[in-house]
Amino acid sequence: MQRRLVLVRHGQSEWNLKNLFTGWKDPGLTEKGVEEAKAAGARLKAQDIKFDVAFTSKLQRAQRTNDLILAELGQRVPVIEDAALNERDYGELTGLNKDDARKTWGEQKVLMWRRSYEVPPPGGESLRDTVARALPYFVREILPRVLNGEQTLVTAHGNSLRALIMVLERLTPEALLRRELFTGAPIIYDVNPDSTIAAIKDLAG
Ligand SMILES: O=C(O)[C@H](O)COP(=O)(O)O
């Protein structure tokens, strides 16, 4: 039995293009984001993956990316949407330009807000807060299906996926600081029966 989990960050959104902190806001995909989603589907097609189920967030940039990937694969599978997979809430930074934020608060503070494990943006969620909602959902709803041999697609967001990747790849907080996820780049995990990771294939690039 092959236990396979695929994680994909949504394609470029309208606020990604404008370099705005997005969080729980719900912008759509740009044309580039649509093309990235289709390309992700094509890359997965080349890997000969046949999904049994897909999970996504309550935000349209992830939902649309998920739909475009499955359409490219020509596969119709149950799609389960849950807010537990939503992007981290960026609180008072939401809607601000990321470069302006660096000028206002400095590179290091903004890096800590964006990439540290414990430091939340003002009024928002730290990655630890995001782990606290995304990981229980993953363990309860997604991992049992993977361990049961269901080929599973999770199309979500940079930080809700980093929350899962931290555990899947056993990243230290220091390693997490450097773990970036590119828009529309599938990561394929082959999972052992004990839920440890046997192999990782990053289809970015
Ligand atoms: O919510 C956002 O702004 C982006 O989707 C992720 O932002 P980040 O890469 O700055 O965490």
UniProtKB/TrEMBL annotation:
GO terms for molecular function: phosphoglycerate mutase activity. GO terms for biological process: gluconeogenesis; glycolytic process. It is an enzyme of class 5 (isomerase). It catalyses: (2R)-2-phosphoglycerate = (2R)-3-phosphoglycerate. The keyword Disulfide bond does not apply. The active site is at 10 (tele-phosphohistidine intermediate), 87 (proton donor/acceptor). The record marks 157 as: Transition state stabilizer. Its EC number is 5.4.2.11. InterPro entries: His_Pase_superF_clade-1 (IPR013078), His_PPase_superfam (IPR029033), PG/BPGM_mutase_AS (IPR001345), Phosphogly_mut1 (IPR005952). Substrate binds at residues 9-16, 22-23, 61, 87-90, 98, 114-115, 158-159. Pathway: Carbohydrate degradation; glycolysis; pyruvate from D-glyceraldehyde 3-phosphate: step 3/5. SMART domains: PGAM (SM00855). Pfam families: His_Phos_1 (PF00300). Keywords: Gluconeogenesis, Glycolysis, Isomerase. PANTHER family: PHOSPHOGLYCERATE MUTASE. Belongs to the phosphoglycerate mutase family. BPG-dependent PGAM subfamily. NCBIfam families: pgm_1 (TIGR01258), PRK01295.1 (NF002339). Homodimer. Catalyzes the interconversion of 2-phosphoglycerate and 3-phosphoglycerate. This is 2,3-bisphosphoglycerate-dependent phosphoglycerate mutase. The lineage of its organism: Bacteria, Pseudomonadati, Pseudomonadota, Alphaproteobacteria, Hyphomicrobiales. The gene is gpmA_1.
